[in-house]
């Protein structure tokens, strides 16, 4: 089976979608008994820099991105196979599926933020209102990253159960081995001895304004509440909802490589994920894989993936978040049995299992065309 994938999310600093695609490609190499898909990477924005994911090759042909985008917005032409070469399946990994001639189409729709919280997205994402319905019409199978997301897609777009494949995201095995930063790493990264952590893009959907207000309220109530550390890409827009991070109590570390990120998560007193909305919530399951307690917004995806092992809080309940932050124990005093329970739960989320569900979708897409 020859599968081409939109590899654009692998370019630049990887957000959640980029990490999904990197994990999926790792998982596809592990799948035993699969039809051994031959993987071709395609990106409208150019080649994926080396080192390229193992077992993949780049699409043989390219075209100017501006011309392609202009053509694809107006006409179902040219078919993407002109650029990828002959493939059996084309997988749109990030909401969009280009015109196809003969390949079976598969598309991953990660969330419906562009419909549920349009005020929190930029103009490019708002275009998904038009691009996603086009992708769903072209797709033989639609990947949902959680059951909660599958239920939303089915209700919003009247999709059949048969057309949807639920493929929960995974956690790299290294997360289960993550250890807190060494004293040298703490100094190099500028980490305090104790901290609570937010990991992710700084964008309006992440609800960082509520977290800042809650953290300030918790510090006002108790002077031993640790600083808030924020890691991840800068994002866009008014991510702080008009608040101003206090540099004395809020540390902005920016984007970290995988090894440093795992260490910083493992060393946190708690990971805080106050998102207004998520399709899955990788920071939640990754923190659990490292044994770290999680404070997360009480939304459908978080309820599904946390398995009752996270503290779930109302999205904009500043007092509730403040109380939870004030109650966090130091990482050094973490209950070992509870940490092991979190790790065991997260270990069920593997990229291999995610890849197996994708291979099912690919196989089904070829039988439909």
Structural write-up:
There is one protein chain. Helices cover 39% and strands 15% of the residues. With 369 residues, the chain is of the alpha/beta class. The chain has two domains: 2-170 and 350-368, Glycogen Phosphorylase B (Rossmann fold, 3-Layer(aba) Sandwich); 173-346, Rossmann fold (3-Layer(aba) Sandwich), CATH 3.40.50. Strands 3-2-1-4-5-6-7 form a seven-stranded parallel sheet, sandwiched between helices. A six-stranded parallel sheet has the order 10-9-8-11-12-13, sandwiched between helices. The chain is globular, with a radius of gyration of 21 Å.
Let me know the CATH homologous superfamily of the largest domain: Glycogen Phosphorylase B
Secondary structure tally, helices: 15
Task: Quickly name the level 1 CATH class of the largest domain.
Answer: Alpha Beta
> What would the CATH topology of the largest domain be?
Rossmann fold
In N-to-C order, the SSE pattern is EHEEHHEEHHHEHEHEHEEHEHEHEHHH
User: pLDDT average, as an integer?
Assistant: 94
- Spatially, the strands of the biggest sheet line up as 3-2-1-4-5-6-7
Overall structural domain count:
2
Give the CA-based shape. globular
Q: Which range best describes the helical content: under 10%, 10-25%, 25-40%, 40-55%, 55-70% or over 70%? A: 25-40%
Query: Strand percentage, roughly?
Result: 5-15%
The N- and C-terminal alpha carbons lie at a distance of 13 Å
Strand elements, count: 13
Biggest β-sheet strands, sense, barrel: 7 strands, parallel
- Category by helix and strand content: alpha/beta
Radius of gyration over C-alpha positions, nearest whole angstrom: 21 Å
């Amino acid at each position: 089976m020859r599968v081409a994938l939109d590899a654009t999310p692998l370019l630049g600093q990887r957000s959640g979608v980029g990490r999904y695609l990197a994990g999926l490609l790792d998982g596809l190499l592990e799948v035993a008994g699969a039809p051994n898909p031959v993987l071709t990477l395609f990106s409208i924005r150019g080649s994926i820099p080396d080192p390229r994911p193992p077992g993949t090759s780049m699409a043989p042909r390219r075209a100017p991105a501006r011309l392609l985008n202009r053509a694809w917005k107006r006409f179902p032409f040219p078919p993407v196979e002109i650029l990828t070469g002959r493939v059996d399946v084309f997988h749109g990994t990030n909401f969009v599926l280009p015109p196809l001639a003969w390949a079976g189409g598969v598309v991953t729709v990660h969330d419906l933020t562009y419909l549920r919280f349009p005020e929190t997205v930029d103009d490019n994402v708002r275009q998904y209102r038009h691009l996603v319905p086009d992708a769903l019409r072209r797709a033989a199978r639609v990947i949902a990253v959680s059951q909660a997301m599958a239920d939303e897609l089915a209700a919003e777009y009247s999709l059949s159960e048969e057309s949807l494949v639920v493929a929960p995201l995974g956690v790299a095995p290294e997360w289960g081995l993550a250890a807190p930063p060494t004293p040298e790493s703490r100094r190099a990264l500028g980490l305090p001895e104790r901290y609570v952590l937010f990991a992710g893009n700084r964008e309006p959907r992440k609800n960082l304004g509520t977290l800042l207000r809650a953290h300030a309220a918790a510090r006002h109530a108790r002077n031993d509440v640790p600083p808030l550390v924020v890691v991840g890409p800068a994002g866009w827009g008014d991510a702080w909802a008009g608040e101003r991070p206090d540099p004395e109590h809020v540390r902005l570390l920016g984007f970290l490589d995988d090894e440093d990120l795992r260490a910083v998560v493992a060393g946190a007193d708690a990971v805080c994920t106050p998102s207004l909305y998520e399709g899955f919530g990788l920071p939640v399951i990754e923190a659990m894989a490292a044994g770290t307690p999680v404070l997360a917004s009480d939304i459908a995806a978080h309820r599904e993936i946390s398995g009752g092992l996270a503290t779930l809080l109302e999205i904009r309940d500043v007092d509730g978040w403040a109380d939870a932050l004030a109650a966090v124990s130091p990482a050094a005093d973490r209950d070992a049995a509870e940490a092991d329970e979190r790790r065991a739960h997260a270990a069920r989320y593997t990229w291999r299992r995610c890849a197996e569900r994708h291979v099912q979708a690919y196989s089904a897409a070829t039988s439909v065309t």
